[in-house]
Amino acid sequence: MWEISKGRTLLSDTKIIIHEAEVELAKIYPQVQVGNIAPIVKDAEHAFGMEYEKHFSGVIGELFERSLVTGENIFGQAPARFTDTTYRKRFQTRLVELRKVIEDNLSAEKRENAIYTIRLVDIREPFCSVLWKYHIGADIIEMIGNGQDEANA
């Protein structure tokens, strides 16, 4: 994999969500400045969406990046791996339970609202960070959901 990708990784989902939020909000709010992003770069930090202090450069730096991204045992000790499936199984069980609760207890209209809310959970933090950065009220979410964003801007 490393050889095929030439060490390049995709941008983290958090950074993509922030960029997309800025693109859309800039259409409504002139104070929102959309930055440039590079969706594919050679950087483990880029892939995981977290910053870390780089102590190595050159060949050692490249080997370190490779070890982080692929999990290879390059330096005599493999990077930390997350092999515990406890949380994944718990999450899957919860999804099955949640689906049954939604189907059994909610009207069609409320079911749609519940599904919409569940979809928003994944983007809540990065989206809210953009709202906070540009001092935009959270009421924009309701306006966008109702198709009123341009009328009320």
Which helices and strands occur, and which strands form pairs?
Elements: H1 2-5, E1 9-10, H2 13-26, E2 40-41, H3 44-48, H4 58-70, H5 86-105, H6 108-121, H7 124-133, H8 139-145
Task: Characterise the protein shown here.
This protein has helices spanning about 1-5, 15-25, 45-50, 60-70, 85-105, 110-120, 125-135, 140-145, and strands at about 10, 40. With about 150 residues, the chain is mostly helical. It has 2 domains: about 1-80 and about 125-153, no CATH class; about 85-120. A two-stranded antiparallel ribbon has the order 1-2. α2 packs across α7. The longest helix is centred in the middle third of the chain and has 20 residues, at about 85-105.
